[in-house]
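Worked example

This section walks through a single chain of length 175. The input is the sequence exactly as stored; nothing has been trimmed or padded.
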Amino acid sequence: MTRRLLLLRHAEAASPPGGDFSEQADLARPLTAEGRLAATRCGAWLRAHALAPDLILCSPARRTRETLAGLEPFQPPPARPTQFCPDIYEAPPSALLERIRQTPADARTVLLVGHNPGISALARWLDDQADVLDQGFATASLAVFHMWGSEIANDASRWDQCDEKSLTLDTFARP
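Given that input, the structure is written out below as tokens.
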């Protein structure tokens, strides 16, 4: 079974209340009605493409949690509990990559739910030949990568070796 990385930017969130741009207010921003619908569409798209994560890495922000809730149920359900990782919130690509590299070797499909600009910059870095990523990583955009060599019988690929040479973009979708 191929090793896959799914990068999902959270769905559309409400503006900060009263122009409060503090971290606390930003973390508490909920999805809009359109954002909830977009999250549901992303979940349907993942199910239609048989992409169920073994492990979910999610920012603790309300909008990422609500996006994740809109994706469910996964069939089969993830083998591990969802990890809500504070280091994903407002993370640069290097921090996101470091989080991915900590993934246990037995996880085959990993879903990371996060924020821009980190998600889009990481996707672009992982496959700088994927011109489709030039259109931007709008809310509720999803990039599906596969790891080279992970589909062969003697799979020696591991998440701790993940870099720009090991992953290739399969699909970029805005369900």
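What to look for: The chain has five helices and six strands.
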